[in-house]
Amino acid sequence: MKQFLIFLGIVIALIVGGIFYYISTYNRAVRLDEGIKAAWSQVLNQYERRADLVPNLVSTVKGYAAHESRIFEETAEKRAAVGQIRLTADDLNDPAKVKAFQEAQNALGGALSRLLAVAENYPDLKANQNFLSLQSQLEGTENRIAVARMDYITLIRQYNSLLKSIPAKWILNGQFSLRSEYTIEEEKKALPIVQFN
Fold it and tell me: Which of 81, 92, 138, 139 is spaced 20 to 30 A from 148 at the CA atom?
């Protein structure tokens, strides 16, 4: 009888331990999933901040370089294109949506680079405090975008690692799906950076 009670105690302990492990693993996956959504929201916030800086930057440059209207129009068009694309964290598993979003962001970044390059020809503009402030804010925003994307990618890797590891893979089978990483094409990483001295 004593051996049966010991065996029964071990079985109950294993069952309770298994239940707690399942709950713990499930809750960790939920926390990571919610963290991914929050991190992606931060990426979008930083992209939105960059887009919000564009009208002021264009207005400031336009005051000094009115005849550069093609660049102003292009920058405004690219900003409008960025504003039309909404990409949620759940959409990141759709390669077509991710590609459209990234192409719009890259196009805006390229237009901003060309806009800032125009300032090279206008020494008075480069000395304008409003322009310098906007340029500094834009640079800070680009840094924030990079940090937000890095944080997002880190969470994706943790989440995907959890879903691929054993026994979590078996425990969470079908309840959560792997997420695609948000990556930038190699040639886009090498875009020239315009710096004013």
Answer: 81
In this structure, what are the phi and psi dihedrals at residue 86, rounded to the nearest 5 degrees?
-115, 125
Q: What are phi and psi of 178, to 5 degrees?
A: -60, 150
Q: What is the DSSP string of 50-101?
A: HHHHHHHHHHHHHHH-TT-HHHHHHHHHHHHHHHH----GGGGG-HHHHHHH
Can you give the pTM of this predicted structure? Answer: 0.74
* Residues making up the chain, counted from first to last: 197
Radius of gyration of the chain (CA): 25
Mapping DSSP to helix (H, G, I), strand (E, B) and coil, where does residue 128 land? Answer: coil
- Residue type at 173? N
Question: CB neighbours of 34 closer than 8 A, spacing ≥ 6?
Answer: none
